[in-house]
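ok so i was messing around last nite and threw this chain in just to see what happens. nothing serious, just curious
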Amino acid sequence: MSRVINTDNPGKRRNYQMRSAAELLRRLSQKGEIDSEAKDMLAQLVFCLREIDEGIEESSKAWEKRDYWMKAEEFRQRWMWAGQAADELKDLIFSERWSDLALMMAKLLPKFADIKINKYMRTESLWQNAYARLAEEKPR
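result:
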């Protein structure tokens, strides 16, 4: 019997989400106003950051299984920003503090600086209705 290899690993998913987030940030920086599409893009950015954060824990557990405790902890520390940024961005969206958006984007852009975008690979279908999905989480 041959070995089963899982090609959908956390690193691959993290790279996909990092690329998606980088493209969203680039597109958002070109927008002049906060319209419904920009809100959808921001909400999708929250979802991307959350998925990155979830993948970090999954990768860390894999390191811990091999008794690489220090490496797992360093990895968590290096990527801690993703979950925090997702929470901050969600709060910014829910409170509609659009004046703080430029500062938030300035904090995020360095995290994606090593991703070169020559051509957009993500289509509008990625972020369509993302704001409505995020709004379902809003406390009443």
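not much to say yet. Residues 36-65 form the longest helix (30 residues).
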